[in-house]
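Retro notes, structure queue

What went well: the backlog is down to a handful. What didn't: a couple of records were mislabeled last round, so from now on we paste the full input next to the output in the thread. Example, using Peptidase A1 domain-containing protein from Triticum aestivum:
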Amino acid sequence: MAATTVPLLLLLAATVAAAADLSVYHNVHPRSASPLESIIALARDDDARLLFLSSKAASAGAASAPVASGQTPPSYVVRAGLGSPAQPMLLALDTSADATWAHCSPCGTCPASSLFVPANSSSYAPLPCSSSMCPILQGQPCPDRDPFDSAAPLPSCAFSKPFADASFQAALASDWLHLGKDSIPNYAFGCVGSVSGPTSNLPKQGLLGLGRGPMALLSQVGNMYSGVFSYCLPSYKSYYFSGSLRLGAAGQPRAARYTPMLRNPHRSSLYYVNVTGLSVGRSPVKVPAGSFAFDPSTGAGTVVDSGTVITRWTAPVYAALREEFRRHVAAPSGYTSLGAFDTCFNTDEVAAGGAPAVTIHMDGGVDLALPMENTLIHSSATPLACLAMAEAPQNVNSVVNVVANLQQQNLRVVFDVANSRVGFARESCN
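Corresponding output:
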């Protein structure tokens, strides 16, 4: 741990104009007046997300381009356009998926209230099964050429994907993708044409794949964004916010602290970083040796993810963190469990400022000091607060740590793929 680094809580983000800057909205309408109850409800779907993150491709080096990445969609969306002329749509941000997809007309079983209509776009083109991207999506194999007509066109690439308790069928296609003032031609995406099974957990919007694989945004645009994007995620508690997705090197925060980005060939879409330790207040958390070690063969390590709600630590790490946090708080009546949280306490019994900050230490001297709003979730109905982190479920994910979006809120997180690094800087999005 680098004791000489400046805490990221004090860093300010630069405000220089960017290549493309899109407003980010959370598509979560709190189900309770209490922030605590709202987060508990959101985090119920994290198990399916963690299952997706902890799964790995069948063989080393295998490409992976998941179309659907968890039981519910990621919580943050941007306004985009697809086609010529541009048809407006919402796309969920997903840093752990590669493929962009949209609900397409005609689709009587799609849950979306508005569908992309390929027939209304002059630039829409289905991609054939011979496309290099079809195998990435595990599309249906191409038939043999007709021996009597070798010039006959091959059928379009069709594929199906499971999603929660349902599945959908889609075609691989290309069209113009419009992000802010930028327009990207021949962008490959999945055009969903039918859904089978229950649709209650299916997203009502499409998805923008921001992973690291060959179908992801940065891979498809070449040098257009210099291999860099960032986002600032607004709090779930805020109805008025100015979150943003910033595409390109211009306007990224000059004061950001960077940690190396690691690559797992089994899960090539994910953004791994090397966590070296945790602190509660000024006290280091005593974890077993090797608890944060990156191991591509098992998937172990730490992932920065936009779609998981609350940060999860593997069992030995979380047990040590919880013990140190409780030692600092010293709640007289002890601690209770609520939803995914097991360290909830009566705030009337704890002196103001009694809850310590949690700091995540990473390679490169990055000390990510989480402000109280990213560490503690309060109930507005009762004098109750909970440590806003949890243990990774043993039956889902026992090796991967996930730094989730609740802990990333009001931070500018920079994914600099070109230079293999992830950066952090403080920035208010509320």
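Agreed that this is the format going forward. Reviewer comment attached to the example: Helices lie at 35-43, 46-54, 217-220, 315-329, 372-375, 405-408.
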